[in-house]
Each structure stands twice: as structure tokens, then as C-alpha cells.
Amino acid sequence: MVLKDKVAVVTGAAQGLGKGFVEILLQNGAKVALLDLNEEAGKELEEHLSKVHGADRAHFYTADVSSEQQLKDVFQKIVTKFGRIDIFCNNAGIVNEKNWEKTVSINLSGVVRGTYLALEHMKKENGGQGGVIVNVASLAGLGPLPSAPIYTATKYGVVGFSRALAMASELASYGVRINTLCPTFVRTALIDTFHSEEKTGQFFNLKSVTESLLDKFPLIEVEQVAKGFLLLVKDDSLNGAVLSVQNSGASFVSFPKEIQKTPVSL
């Protein structure tokens, strides 16, 4: 996909990974709608990006991904302003093991909700022009993070949902590719929540396990993850791909074609 003048939408766009995705999309010629609950940070970023990349290339919208109505309204505003949607990135996510319903609502339900709404505007059977959706999971969606089981569950869900829907999109000729990005620990504000008793709750006593995983999987920078994101967007041959990004580099994840069974005596 050539990104010049394509229209992209990124959730959780005001900081961290979302901000990195927005910047790399703009650098490659796209126009970007930024979605986030943090209105102050979002408007500041919009102002900064307009100075760097030119007026009207980036526009901020306040939206809560856990609200169906808010997302519907903001999608309509984006289509009215930009005319279409070519790229959608579900990036918004939290860590909160105490309020696990909220974590599921944002990390998993929000991804499903955003993906389905994006497809309504993008898929060819509805008059859309096709495009690509990138859902941000985590290395915790490929291997469990003991100190955050709900976070782990939501990220496993994102991987499974995205892979299944990618196949459905191909079979139904939606014209929309759906890929998944699984970064390891990234140097963003989110990393601090893994060390917070307020966020990890009853699993706070497992913080030493998290520390050992951080030693095994050192922090990576936002820019490295953004390059992986760009690959999933631009390469038209990729649908249903799951890209892991770690300190050692990026690699596509292979999954077994059938479940391997180990016989046991019952």
C-alpha cells in the first residue's frame, strides 16, 4: 500500500505507541485521525503535528473505545471530514487487574467494536475501498504474563480474533487485510503499571516474575515498534500476519495448522 493521501485512524493516539504510529504514518504521506480520551494531550499533539507536517493532515477526536455510540459518532465525523478510511489501528489499551471488567472492555471489546465499525466503512461490499486493519496485542498474547492474567487474556483474544477475522475477510472478499502486532515491553508510560499494586492488585506479589521477564525481554523503543507497524500496513501480501517485535528484532509468528495432542490416561 502506498500511503500518500491515504486516511488512517489510530486509537490511543495521544501518547506512547499510538503517537509513534501516527508520526510514522504522517512521515509516509498519510492523513491521520487521532482518537484518545486524553483531550489535552490529543489537542497538543494535533497542534504540534500540524506545524511539522502541514495543516489539516492530522486531526484529534475525543473518544472512548468502550463506548459504541462515541465510536460510531467519531467514525462518522472522520468520514465526513476525510471522505473515507483506508487504515485503522486498534491501539488503545490498559493494565488493570483489579478492575478486570474495564480491562476487557477496552483491550478486547474495544478492539472488536473498533474493527467492526471500521469494516462497515472500509469493506468493498459496503462501497468502501478496502484497506488494512492493524490490531495491537502484545508478547503477552503469545505467552502468559503471570502478574497480569486479565491483560494476558485480552491480548490472546486480540490475536485469535484478528487471525479469524482475517480469514473471514479473505473468504468474504471484504478487500480488507487484518494483521496483529505483538511487541514486547516498550518504553512507554504503560510499563509503569506492571509495577503498580493499584493496577496489578492481588498479583502484585509476583512483581519479581515481571522483573525477570524484563531482564529476558529488555525494553524496546516506540520507534522500533512503529517500523513493524508500518510493515504490516504497507505490505499488501500480509493478511492474518502476527508480527512479534523484540529487542532482538522482528519476526512473524508461526502457528500450528492443527492442534497437537498428547495422549493421557484418564
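The record above closes out task 2.4. Task 2.5 opens with a second protein, given below.
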Amino acid sequence: MNTGKNFTKYDYKNSFGQSNPNLQSGSGNFYEIGLIKPLIKEHFLYSFGLSLNEYNAVGGNVANAYSWDTKYLGIKGGLAYSFFPMGDDPDHNLDFLVHAGILGESIIYGKQKIDGINYDLVHQKEFSGIVLEASIGFQVKYRVPSFGFLSIGYNFGQTTNISKSTEEKLSFITHQLQLGVHFPIN
């Protein structure tokens, strides 16, 4: 189980290919639950699970203030490399992992607020459909005897909407700080 914060920057381009310079990064939460298993040897691992991500942003100028509040539900898969696999050695308590993953997700909640008026984003073409996020990151795991493992980590991700073709383009660039709790399953 992982949870933490997403720090998201919207990369928006209008139908003329112009970006909005007034967009600022926003923060939101994320939650993941999944399974990690050895792939070939104990150094190589694969993972899969479910995730809920909030990708939020704010913006505005002298005349207008706006914000986005979104939640995406998805399925994640990935590969990891463990530098110091712990195995069954009780004296070995620390591991460092690098990982890459792909997340397929879709919006389940979305609101845009412009000057106090709320708009639903769930059916807006830039936000709806299937969104893929490619990510890379690292994780440090610490064994807690008779419990499992605790971890901290970082992910960098970039999304692309693969199911909608519109003149307006939107993607998310996300920096994710993670805290994790891991339980061995025999």
C-alpha cells in the first residue's frame, strides 16, 4: 500500500497550439494497493495494482481565477530492480529499488471552478477517456521485524490521453512523493 502527494503541472495547449502561462502546479493525494513479486531472480520484480490519483491545478490572472480538482482511477503495472534484496536474511534491513511503470486510468470525478462557478469535467474530451501515465522512480524500503516493510519513494510521471483526439491537448506532469507499508504474503 502506498499513499502520498501528487504535485501536478497541467500541460495545456489550445486549438492554436498555444500554452496558458497562467497555469500553476497543484497538489493532490494518491492511493495505491497492489502486489509485488519476483520476476526472474530476487533482483527483478514486477508489480500490479489499483490506484486513485488526484491531479489538481490552479491558475488565473487579474480578471479571472480558476482551479481544477480531478480524481482518476486506474490499473498500474511495472518493473523494478532491487539493489540489495533482503530475502530471508534477518540482519539485512535496507533495500533500494528503481522502477518504471505504466498506468491506465480514467477520470471518475472532475470539477473546474472559474470565478466561483463550478463546471463538470467528467465528460469534457480533454479529461475523459483512457489516460496513460508512464513513470520512473525510486524507493527505499526498511524491514520492520515481525511486521513487514516501510518505504519512502519518488515517482516522475507524464500522462497522455490515448482515446480522445481533440484540437485542445492536455497532459499532466506529476512529481509524486510516496509513503508505503508492505506486508509479506506467503
